Amino acid sequence: MVSCKTIIANLSEYLNGDATPEMRQKIERHLRSCRRCSAVYDSTRKMLVITGDERIFDIPVGFSERLHKFLDATLSKT
Amino acid sequence: MGEKESEGGSAEPLLIERVLAGEKDFFHDLIRPYERGAFLLAYSILRNQDDAEEIVQQAMVKIFSHLAELTERDKFKQWAMRVIENEAKMYRRKRRQHLYEPIDQDSSEVFEERPFYPRQFADWRDLPNEAVEQKEVREAIATALGGLPDIYREIFVLRDMQHLDVAETAAVLGIGQSAVKTRLHRARLMLREALAPVFAKPKVSIWERWKGINPWLAAKR
Question: Which of residues 55-74 of B touch A (CB under 8 A)?
Fold first, then answer.
């Protein structure tokens, strides 16, 4: 069986869908039997769903309006 | 439909052409899909909302006035983000000189990319879609992200929050694609480690678990 170290080292590629078919198979086999690695995999996946959602981050209220107003005022001078 | 198309990627060269032809109003349409990401990137570098907003405004003017220099017009996003990144870093440098803030190793290669190994192996509770609206979740993410060294925070913001691909991220940061990959991997593991205590499933004591499976106690509840 592939070591946990190897699995963790290749986890990002796997999550991106970039792992080679051979590595993917190794990882999936490992995850089925290793509780620790599957916990790392599962929590990383959960984290990426949350952080990838653009609502997670607050943009200051009125940011867009101020930006476009600023641009209108500045670009008209150029 | 790919993400780039949904951001109006295919229409961009045309918009750029019209702006360059003097139709300045189209500049607003050109940058609208990226203003949120621009703020996020500037904020991840400056860690101050007012500064980030000011820098985005200034950088957008710069983007407008240098638009003719963009030769590959289908690469507007990465080019624009690079301008934002540079402006924010330049401002940070100035601010540090002024405030005598310690200079940390921002884009330098000082951080060795040694492998990072997780230490927390608890299962996480489920984080449904609505979790992003919860104050506790948002604060935890912001704090954990703020705790990452700059080079990892930037990579994470560009790749996993703004969804730039490896080549685009490498172009924005002026680093190689393999550095993007190793740093992103490390950034994810570090962030996961920082968030584990917040999102781990609450531990159930042996007594609680026993109560749950004991039919006599379960009936009494």
Answer: 56-57, 60-61, 64-65
ipTM metric? 0.93
Query: What CA–CA distance (Å, rounded) separates B96 from B98?
Result: 5
Tracing tokens 């080679």 back to the chain, one arrives at A20
Tell me the pLDDT tens digit for each residue of A32-75. 999 999 999 999 999 999 999 988 988 999 999 999 999 999 99
- Residue of B87, B152, B158, B161 to mutate, testing the A interface (most A Cβ within 10 Å of its Cβ): B161
Beta-carbon neighbour count of residue B36 at 10 Å? 16
Task: Report the residue of chain A nearest B53, measured CA to CA.
Answer: A63
Burial environment of residue A54 by CB neighbours within 10 A (0 to 12, 13 to 18, 19 or more): middle
Amino acid identity at B125: R
How far is B129 from B85, CA to CA, in rounded Å?
30
Please give the residue range of the domain that contains residue B134: 129-200
Which of B53, B122, B132 is closest, CB to CB, to A53? B132
Is residue B159 included in any domain, yes or no?
A: yes
Question: Are B188 and A48 in contact, with CB atoms under 8 Å apart?
Answer: yes
Domain end residue (candidates: B99, B120, B155): B99
One domain for residues B9 and B89: yes
Instruction: Nearest by CB to A74, from B36, B61, B163: name it.
Output: B61
State both tokens at B97. 């000189």
Q: Which two tokens stand for residue B96?
A: 């540090």
Grouped pLDDT means (10 residues each) for chain B, 221 residues: 48 94 96 95 92 97 96 93 95 80 50 78 91 92 92 95 95 95 96 95 75 67 53
